[in-house]
Amino acid sequence: MRGAIVVDTERCKGCEVCVVNCPTDTIGMAEEVNGKGYHYAYMKYPENCTGCSNCAIVCPDGVITVYRVKTEK
Amino acid sequence: MGEIQLMKGNEAVAEAAIRAGLDAYFGYPITPQSEVLEYLTLQRPEERTGMVVLQAESEIAAINMVYGAAGTGKKVMTSSSSPGISLKMEGISYIAGAELPCLILNVVRGGPGLGTIQPSQADYFQATKGGGHGDYRLVVLAPASVQEMADFVDKGMELAFKYRNPVMILSDGLIGQMMEKVELPEQKERLTEFDPSWTITGKTPDRERNIITSLNLDSEKQYEHNMKLQEKYASMKEDVMYETFDCEDAEFLLVAYGSSARICQKAVDVARSRGKKLGLLRPITLFPFPTEIIAKLSRQVKGILSAELNAGQMVEDVRLAVNGRIPVYHYGTPGGKIYSPDDILKAIDEKLMGGY
Amino acid sequence: MDIKDIIQPENLVHKRTPLMTDATLSYCPGCGHGTAHHLVMEVIEEMGIQQDTIGIAPVGCSVLAYDFMDIDMSQAAHGRAPAVATGIKRLWPEKYVFTYQGDGDLAAIGTAETIHACNRGENIVIIFINNGIYGMTGGQMAPTTLEGMKSSTSPYGRDTQLMGHPLKITELVAQLPGTYFVTRQAVHKSGNVRKTRKAIKKAFEVQRDKKGLAFVEIVSNCNSGWKMTPNESNVWMEEHMFPFYPLGDIKVEGKIVKDLVKELM
Question: Among partner residues B54, B64, B74, which is closest to C84 by beta-carbon distance?
Fold first, then answer.
């Protein structure tokens, strides 16, 4: 499985709950801040993402969209 | 002529509620109005019209059940007596703020506090000046007979929906408990359509969601909402109702409503039989108050006595209407005591002029 | 494989439910309210009942729930939501009616309305967000605040002598015959989120099947009121709240499934 998340960076409130719920340590918090002054979440190690959706379902603001493909190996 | 029955005031309200096609009644026992709930549960209106009747756990719960159902556009009512009406004040303020239609019956008893179970008119301020918090008004109807108790249910509901406002029937223990002949109205159909512009019956794809609320954190918007409410209350004067007795040539005027008006009617008869030119104005709507007719009569009569079963409440509105033109006095017996026609005549004698 | 190959519509696995409006949630960063809101709306979306659902918002942090949930909703006075729900459900028995309430709303000022709606077995869903504090008004003590827990009105910690013990309202209502499904869940971790979603769906199915009242408590964090970061608050919640408010089903299909006697001793 290869996955990817898209974060609505302007709506992210930088709570970091997604970070601790990611089983593959994909997510980090950006150095930059968004329009509200929050450091938003992003895929720091995108190659790790499996598209499990843990981050998206735990996000209180629903800012994460998740994609996943099966990879043949 | 419709069906005639001999009924208690409280029972007449209950029977009228079923016949007016009300969808629900939520109430709680309290003397002197428990017969409303008792009559309704005995009648099984769920079998007659499908009307829901539920004894709530408190007057607070009952008014909030009314608030919920009213938000869906249904015809609902509750009833209580003075201490229970105080409990409902929060809910009534919310209903007024959210602009919902409903009917609230207050069968007034002596107060304050737990008070007494005898009749009184000491909730006039509470009913007409808001009662709960905030700038709002209720339409207030004051029945003076068992017939009016019955008639005002449908009339009150009609006004409630016309203005999207709570309507109060301000009765008292005397009218609630006494038995009189009453002509009952025909059975009306219950509502089958609900205005999709504001009722919460489930958001269909063809419209935005409806929200029933009285909250607005934006003070500018809340100001506009309040101004809209004030306009609404001012417009209610087109529905003012009152009755006059022997006023055409009156030299002195009694102003009284409800049970007090019945006693004063007798006082007028006695005075007239003695050749005294006494008249009576009976306000039927206490809000909107019959200001114009009182102002008009104050240019004709020499003095006014506001006779109320309380320590002096409606007299203030009479004075406002009279605006200082002539003397206005109050006579009343608070705390559940009821005066007689002779007491009225004596009061006129003592307060307004000699030898009446 | 390039990321942009993965991010294609046909590869979509999860997106925000359209039954949440576009409005930015007014909750603090990391607050469980947001997650709970999304779950309720996801269940309504999945069951296809948006046009038959009426929700009731409380007074508390979620007073503005109607700005976020795209369904017909009514605001209720503090604590009165179960009575408001009763008024609606009795007149519209075919609709889905739910209340969404906090701990002050449900277990302090609204205790009578809560107990009696449960006792009558009103066929509604009650979603109860328990974070042991009054968030909206600035962090005061709640009936569910733990012994020793600090709040702005228990600045030295809750003293049970003076202020009473924390109230396990959920265990109380489970004992009433009118409640059919009573459960306690959490939404701070993805595993819990999935369980809670199932519990909420079950609750609405109880209503669909007219079995009685379904009561879903969600033990949640209040990082602002507790004065911690979101992740710290979730750890604190696991260490302190869960032992006192244990997660799991309390009543299923009308029968109590926990040893309440043992737990409440």
Answer: B64
